[in-house]
Amino acid sequence: MNTPHSDQDLSAFWMPFTANRQFKEAPRMFVSAKGMYYQTDDGRQVLDATAGLWCVNAGHCRDEIIAAVTRQIGSMDYAPSFQMGHPLAFEAAKKVAGLMPAGVDRIFFTNSGSEAVDSALKIALAYHRARGEGQRTRFIGRERGYHGVGFGGISVGGILNNRKAFSGNLMPGVDHLQHTLNIAEAGFSRGQPAWGAHLADELERLVTLHDASTIAAVIVEPLAGSTGVLIPPVGYLERLRELCSKHGILLIFDEVITGFGRLGAPTASAYFGVTPDLITLAKGINNAAIPMGAVAAKREIHDTVLQSAAAGAIELMHGYTYSAHPVAAAAAIAAIDLYQSEGLFERARELSPLFEKAAHSVAGAPHVKDIRNLGLVAGIELEPRPQAPGARAYEVFRKCYEKGVMVRYTGDILAFSPPLIVQPEEIERMFGTVREVLNEIK
Ligand SMILES: Cc1ncc(COP(=O)(O)O)c(C=O)c1O
């Protein structure tokens, strides 16, 4: 039975990435979900314009995933993956590998995107060490990058507020590229901005500063979502790939939100035709039914690490109690089957032009500073209110919610990333509601 929030004691749950005091004064509670909609505790339907947190790509409460999870939890709730195995782990790895770029097909399971990022950084170090270049320990991230909240992830990440409280203890030996957003040069771009490929050349400057022989890896989101939807300029990722290869630096694509169809392809790597050495995954990996993440590694990286260890020795001293959890693995197999049987990645690609048009239809509304989009992702950046950064976007978020549409906001940027099952009229409704709200607020 639903407990109305007015009767419930909310004090014990310290909510993540939430203004706890503000939330608890006026809670927004979801109690069930189906397809494109959440239901609130006061019985309202809310259109999910963000696939939860960029993760429920096949829509909510899909019967096939529910059945797989139910079957698995009833037959084997848990089995360790340290020196033991269970068949679903291997099957899930094979399914995930089948969606990765050719050769990037060795899968290390984690429980979240943050863990996938920290695991990828460790694999990069282990690889260089295994090939006798253990001095390659430096990582290059990018300003405004979001790579989760582990100490590795916030160190290579580039979001000030996620770093500053912990700044004394970030990982040493990290540098950052500039981010690629430039509204003056590329505002209101539809799809990839034409301006900005040259920003990848900054890697050459960092190589000159640190020397390539000290750099293990560059990590970027091919399309940065959490930081406010930054679309890579045409040619930028290709150039980064070229420079990393030239200098023996591994390239890591953090595909925690772009993996599993968000851009209308299995990965952003496939969409852009740029193959990194390591890919971090989570969220859509199993439609977010059970926590799960992964690193997909090039076979050469995997083989090098394995072959460098003595026979019978554990090759990589890393792993999680819940790596390849049987229920999460069952959900991954079912979710990937669903993505494929329903052609959801192709569907996302087909809907992209309509989604782009609808997003850019908000351009004439008050307070709009920029609109950017690619695949089924869009960002609408608002002019901030003087002395109150984020306040305007929060008000839009809240009013949209009251009107039955959940959008996401970061600072003064609204983000949209609906489940790939979204209908054209729901796309119109999302952006129509935002337009309406922008006309109502100051
Ligand atoms: C690109 C990227 N990397 C890592 C993460 C962290 O994932 P998690 O919250 O599952 O730890 C996120 C989460 O939004 C993300 O967008």
UniProtKB/TrEMBL annotation:
Gene3D superfamilies, per the entry: Aspartate Aminotransferase, domain 1, Type I PLP-dependent aspartate aminotransferase-like (Major domain)
Database matches in Pfam families: Aminotran_3
GO terms assigned for molecular function: adenosylmethionine-8-amino-7-oxononanoate transaminase activity; beta-alanine:pyruvate transaminase activity; pyridoxal phosphate binding
Keyword Transferase: yes
Keywords: Aminotransferase, Pyridoxal phosphate, Pyruvate, Transferase
CDD domains, sorted: OAT_like
UniProt KW Repressor keyword: no
EC number(s) reported in the record: 2.6.1.18
Top-level EC class: transferase
Cofactor(s) this protein requires: pyridoxal 5'-phosphate
Alphabetized PROSITE patterns for the sequence: AA_TRANSFER_CLASS_3 (PS00600)
Family of the protein in this entry: Belongs to the class-III pyridoxal-phosphate-dependent aminotransferase family.
Protein's name according to its UniProt entry: Omega-amino acid--pyruvate aminotransferase
